[in-house]
Amino acid sequence: MCRSLLAVLTLLGAAAFLTSCGKPAEEDASHKETASSVVTTVSEEKAESTVSAEEPSSEEPSSAAEDASSAPEAVFENSVQDLFLSADNREICIGEDDNEVIFVARDIIEPQEVELIDEDTGKAVGTMLDDADFEHSGDDIMGDAWYSLRYRVDDTFPKDPDVSEDREYHFYARYIEDGTEHRSDTLKITVFETFTDAELDRMESVRNAVADVMKSDGFSELDIEGRKEKVIAALSELEEQGLVDKGSIMANNDMITYSVNGITSGVMVKPFDPRMK
Question: Whole-prediction pTM value?
Answer without folding.
Answer: 0.63
